[in-house]
Design brief:
Number of helices: 7
Distance between the termini: 25 Å
Structural class: alpha/beta
Helix content: 25-40%
CATH class: Alpha Beta
Order of helices and strands: HEEHEHHEHEEHHEEEEE
Strand order of the largest sheet: 4-3-2-9-10-11
Number of domains: 1
Radius of gyration: 18 Å
Strand content: 15-25%
CATH topology: Purple Acid Phosphatase, chain A, domain 2
Length: 284
């Protein structure tokens, strides 16, 4: 518990503050885990949902915040293969970047992005000069309410301090075992008990600091009906849907995007509100 509180405190002190108002629009997605379009690519089944949703947000003037684990760099050694496999997604994200409407945070599965040389080498063509951060502080101009954004793996020994060991185990132990239906018990996105432990630590930080915290990591979407509170954007690898947090008009809303069957048997990608809104004006 103490390790998570300290790590989040340290990250918060080091990251930039971005002021926003009622005219600002953000969509926050996490845990895309983009792979190389093979059997192990958990993003592949939802790639069209992601593209449709993000296209809608682009047309409507939102900024896109990717909240970590955007690329699956633990299972895949070569990011250039991920870039090729999902060139449409990276093209669209680059359009956000050209407009100054893209912010990226790294998680444990894409922690390699903390190195500017690594980002420049593999992602510079799409996002020239981008710095991928460990967190961001969004500050609401109207009353100073803060939303602290981080992936949520901070303080977890195997996913944070010893992340290289975690990457080794995923690549060479757990991933091959998944072929036989064995799930990685250390993965917060697949283990219910692990996710509960992680979320209790994150909630404790909110209680101690009285600052709202927005994370991903556990893949479990959450909208707390009060401020300060703990919020989670969920993931882009849910079966048959992706979830996201939207910030617009001074409110936070939890939504999902899925394919719906219409009365004429055509298919439609559509947005559904799952929870909210929560008014930022209710914060301190």
């Amino acid at each position: 518990m103490k390790a998570t509180v300290k790590r989040l405190d340290d990250v918060r002190k080091a990251v930039p503050v971005i002021d926003f108002g009622n005219d600002s629009k953000f969509v926050i997605m996490s845990d895309c885990h983009r792979g190389v379009a093979n059997w192990g690519d958990n993003f592949a089944p939802n790639q069209h949902l992601f593209f449709a949703a993000l296209s809608n947000y682009y047309r409507n003037g939102y900024s896109y915040i990717e909240l970590g684990d955007g690329d699956e760099l633990w299972e895949n050694r070569k990011p250039e293969q991920i870039l090729r496999a999902h060139s449409d997604a990276f093209w669209l994200m680059s359009e956000f970047y050209k407009k100054g409407r893209l912010l990226m945070i790294y998680g444990n599965h894409d922690k390699a992005k903390e190195k500017n040389e690594y980002v420049k080498k593999f992602y510079g063509q799409h996002f020239p000069g981008i710095q991928i951060l460990e967190g961001i502080r969004l500050r609401y101009r109207c009353n100073g309410t803060e939303l602290f954004l981080a992936h949520g793996h901070q303080g977890d020994l195997l996913n944070d301090t010893f992340w290289r060991l975690g990457r080794f185990l995923v690549r060479y132990v757990w991933r091959p075992l998944e072929l036989f239906g064995v799930h990685d018990p250390t993965d917060a996105g697949k283990s219910y008990e692990k996710a509960n432990r992680v979320e209790r630590k994150l909630e404790k930080w909110v209680e101690k600091r009285e600052i709202s915290l927005v994370t991903g990591h556990t893949h479990r979407s959450r909208l707390t009906p009060r401020l300060p509170g703990y919020f989670n954007s969920g993931s882009c690898v849910h079966p048959r849907c992706i979830t996201a947090l939207e910030i617009a008009d001074g409110e936070i809303v939890l939504v999902k995007w899925a394919v719906y069957v219409m009365k004429d048997n055509t298919l439609k990608v559509a947005r559904e509100v799952l929870d909210g809104p929560v008014k930022l004006a209710g914060g301190g």
